[in-house]
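Hi everyone,

Forwarding the result from last night's run.
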Amino acid sequence: MIARWRERSRALAAALVLPVLLRFASLPAVLALCDRSSGVGAARASPQALGCRVRRWLAYGYGPWKSSCLTRSLVLYAMLRQHGYRPHFLVGVSGPERSFIAHAWITLDGTPVSDTPAVIGGYRRLMSHHA
């Protein structure tokens, strides 16, 4: 029971603090902070369950940030690290140079966690961070 509350409090902290921290620190610095996070013990949720949880929590739009692929991927990365996974954080771009669009996503062993391969297939990798 205590482990479950510990996991939930860490997840809530990630959802509330990390997007705000991103406004004051670089993305690599925030990811490095996530990498130093310790695990939640024996409790280990599936990557897909964590991805659904992040989408659900951030979909409401509460807080000083908007739910974007960057905030969702950052929080999901932190939660996966807390559960003992070694995620890969990626940022890619698509489109012409002057009007490109960017997207952030997470993979585990090359498989997207919260996106489909079709969604991320059109992006050229711009940044990559391994746990």
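Residues 2-130 form one domain.

Cheers,
N.
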